[in-house]
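Homework help board

Subject: predicted structure for assignment chain

Our instructor gave us this sequence and asked us to write out the predicted structure in token form, then describe one feature. I got the tokens but I'm not sure how to describe them. Can anyone check?
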Amino acid sequence: MCWTDVIVAGAGLGIGRATAARFLREGARVVATDIDENRLAALGREKAGGILLTVAGDICREEVVRRIVEACAGHVDALANVAGIMNGFLPAAESMTIPETGCWPST
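My token output:
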């Protein structure tokens, strides 16, 4: 595999979790992020292979992004941004955003 250092945002559920698990099975070092720390802990209990580093938090927040970058130790081969919240399954353009940040509300 040519990608050995990978960030997966939204790694707690669904496609993000499957993406992180696949990279781990392939032997990658994965920095997995999710807004829910319990989901990341569950991913850690299920991992088989690779190296898993977790960063819990909302990736719309600068301090969380800084923690993710620090966890990467200066090297990233790939980024899978699979984080998102579906509010009523509306199209993205119709979803409400927080005016100050431009991010979708996460609660």
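Reply (TA_rk): Your tokens look well-formed. For the description, you could write something like this. The mean pLDDT is 85. That's the kind of observation they're looking for.
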